[in-house]
């Protein structure tokens, strides 16, 4: 039972971490573009 319970939690944790990382990078890129509009990435 513990094996089946642990796997979904790990998968959801990985998905949440990836989403947080993507949103964080998106916000950082937007802030970078606002602070340095001339810089072309």
Automatic annotation (TrEMBL):
The keyword Transmembrane applies. This is Protein O-mannosyltransferase 1. The gene is POMT1. The chain crosses the membrane at residues 15-32. The lineage of its organism: Eukaryota, Metazoa, Chordata, Craniata, Vertebrata. Keywords: Membrane, Transmembrane, Transmembrane helix.
């Amino acid at each position: 039972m513990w094996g089946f319970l642990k796997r979904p939690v790990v998968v959801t944790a990985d998905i949440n971490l990836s989403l947080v990382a993507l949103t964080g990078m998106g916000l950082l890129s937007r802030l970078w573009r606002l602070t340095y509009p001339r810089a072309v990435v």
